[in-house]
Write a structure and sequence with these properties.
CATH architecture of chain A: Alpha-Beta Complex
Distance between the termini of chain A: 22 Å
Largest sheet of chain A: 5 strands, parallel
CATH topology of chain A: putative 2-phosphosulfolactate phosphatase
Structural class of chain A: alpha/beta
GO molecular function (chains A, B): 2-phosphosulfolactate phosphatase activity; magnesium ion binding; sulfopyruvate decarboxylase activity
Oligomer: homodimer
Strand content of chain A: 15-25%
CATH superfamily of chain A: ComB-like
Family (chains A, B): Belongs to the ComB family.
Helix content of chain A: 25-40%
InterPro entries (chains A, B): ComB-like, ComB-like_sf
CATH class of chain A: Alpha Beta
Order of helices and strands of chain A: EEHEHEEHEHEHEHEHHHHEE
Keywords (chains A, B): Hydrolase, Magnesium
Strand order of the largest sheet of chain A: 7-2-8-1-9
Number of helices of chain A: 10
Radius of gyration of chain A: 16 Å
Cofactor (chains A, B): Mg(2+)
Chain lengths: 243, 243
Amino acid sequence: MQIEVLPSTGSPRTPYLEERLVIVIDVLRATSTIVTALANGCQAIIPVLTPQEALERRLTLPGSLLGGERDSLIIEGFDLSNSPFDYVPEKVGGRRVILTTTNGTRAIRDSIAAPMIWMASFINMQSIVSAVLSEFETNKKLQGIVVYCAGTEERFDLADTLCAGMFIDALGPNVVLNDLGTAARMLYHSSEDQLVDIIRDSDHGKKLISLGLEKDLVYCATPNILPIVPVVQDGEIVWLTEQ
Amino acid sequence: MQIEVLPSTGSPRTPYLEERLVIVIDVLRATSTIVTALANGCQAIIPVLTPQEALERRLTLPGSLLGGERDSLIIEGFDLSNSPFDYVPEKVGGRRVILTTTNGTRAIRDSIAAPMIWMASFINMQSIVSAVLSEFETNKKLQGIVVYCAGTEERFDLADTLCAGMFIDALGPNVVLNDLGTAARMLYHSSEDQLVDIIRDSDHGKKLISLGLEKDLVYCATPNILPIVPVVQDGEIVWLTEQ
């Protein structure tokens, strides 16, 4: 299985996405929050690039909520921040959320040329790995995987890369990796027992802690909490169901 | 000491370079070749972006040689490839070399806003580390280091990142790192005994081996062969001498 890992949005080289399964990772916090929202009954998440686009989109989707962040904080006039703890059943159950974040929703939108876009995080790792292995067993059209780490403001992000490394490691030895994929797996191997501590010390981790959001970080760095595989279908992110 | 590591040329975010010492790393092979050329008596290396620029530059520098590569191979009409083994005393002694490579010379030229641009590789590691520590002891204007990994065709490169990790590790514990710097040091720690093997398996390593250039790779992956610190002075790369 051919796997190419991208370090962040804004990467100068966009890989070939045809016949590829794209796995978007934004551990802190977009993909962790999306997993949580779906697990808590959110009907669908609509990824958009800007707060303005979110406001315009809501006009066509009455009853939907606005969620997301700029500079890690809730956007003025929005219903939800980018914290997974905002996405509780009482708020998101049965509703659509229009979401805009600095890194994660941009990575999802950048991947739009791919036939399949799925979302990974530590909290849904076991489920995404099982789903990917099962998809490659049955879908012979797929030529490989692009792991799109959202990064932090167009920069390499340690949490995303470690998550990519855990994902690659779980797929087993029959993988062909680009250099960043090899590095991600090495980084995961050298730190799998201290994930939370390393993410605490990362640039994005330190920023969240400084904003009082350490609880978010610890939750997002915990593997295998929720059995959810978010997938893009017709521009909306929904829960993958057996086909 | 604040250290920011960049993954490759073409990175979307160029850091602040004022009052920074930039360390350019292109293990395979530009900075290794530059170190070797200077050790073998080359008078100066002039980094240029394109073969055309090299040809034009030679018109103003009679007696100089043209060196470099495209797609890892010597450029038609040039005197020297990008192999360190081309830069022997009989060829480069006492002469200037105008050099253009895909990644390394571009990274050097990208750094031109910095007051100091030095070059690192495995082969001159001990010397560059000593020179950096000594510079920071005496030059109180310097605010930090930008380690500019040239990468491979605008992508993350494992050899460059491991070299950055060895460099950071050698500077000791009093460093403040961005996420890629932390990752580089972790990668180096987890593989310092198998550098050559890991670089053999990297994307760029495999390419050089496929072209019959494994000898270059093994040489470039060997630490501490030459006591040379290449520095940019007035647009030319020369040997750092005691000030």
